[in-house]
Amino acid sequence: MKNMSVLLGVLLLSCSAITLADPIVIKFSHVVAPDTPKGRAAEKFKLLAEEKTKGQVKVEVYPNSQLYKDREELEALQLGSVQMLAPSMAKFGPMGAREFEVFDLPYIFPDITVLHRVMDGEVGKKLFAKLDTKGLTGLAFWDNGFKQMSSNRPMHNVSDFKGMKMRIQSSKVLDAQMKALGAIPQSMAFSEVYSALQQGVVDGTENPNSNFYTQKMNEVQKHLTISNHGYLGYAVVVNKKFWDGLPVDVRKELTAAMKEATEFERNIAQKDNDEALEKVRAAKTTEVYVLTESEREAWRKALLPVHGEFESVIGKDLIQGVYDIASQVAKEQAAQETKKKPANQSHSDKKKQ
Ligand code: LMR
Fold this sequence. Notes:
Structural class: alpha/beta
Bound molecules: (2S)-2-hydroxybutanedioic acid
Strand content: 15-25%
Helix content: 40-55%
CATH superfamily: Bacterial extracellular solute-binding protein, family 7
Shape: globular
CATH topology: D-Maltodextrin-Binding Protein, domain 2
CATH class: Alpha Beta
Number of domains: 1
Radius of gyration: 24 Å
Number of helices: 15
């Protein structure tokens, strides 16, 4: 009897040892460098998730397309081979979630305030609901930043793009955007862009500065135009079955970890992009050109028709929803400005500034 209870004790101990040694593993795959806003936030999430769940969850981050390229990673997530990703919005179109391409529309977001209000409001909710039908759960929206154009030729005027082969992400909106400029779009996985530029398979591309610099594209692109013509951001997604199957307390802690990681990510994104631009300038391999106001107006004029072209695909209401938020934010910003001005400031005083 005594032997029996000793045996039982040993068995129980080894079972709990197995439980302790067997954490829930979240494979988090992404395609960019670790020292980008997404790369750093993935690491932050890992730290917070492991800390908050006291080791019950282990997060393995695989950067730089180490595990999967763009399209493959979404398929792998649906199959459950990885549990978490943060693809850019442009990557959801090919899986049938075309509404995400609203974020690719050129010049739709006047600033980051409008963008965040869109992500965090009804539009964001609608997009996440769409993912449910694809076996995914949306957890958060992360920033990268506004995109700039690069190539081996200067790009000041719309006519400069004529006949230029430009790499794009897999988005029909981006395809139309490049065509509206007179360029020839070519969709390609992010991991292939550097060598495609190096070998002249494509002439140029578009990116936020953090991606441009960390992928060393400045080594193979002579010109960078600061155009801020479009936005690149991410939806952090998990496999729905995996997420729903987690113990409630674990899911709660992971949700809290994601909330903190998201705040961190949104705080560093702009700064990372600004610093990347400084590094590009310092490297002196690429000439950086900032569009003048009138050149920017000409780009806008050429690109705005793309919005109308995609009303039926993205949804007229969804696009209108973004316009409405933009005009609401503009009103609020104007009211703030008026408040800031001293009441007794005369019109002639203002003119002197
Ligand atoms: C791209 O393919 O250009 C981007 O989506 C890469 C990324 O994830 O930032």
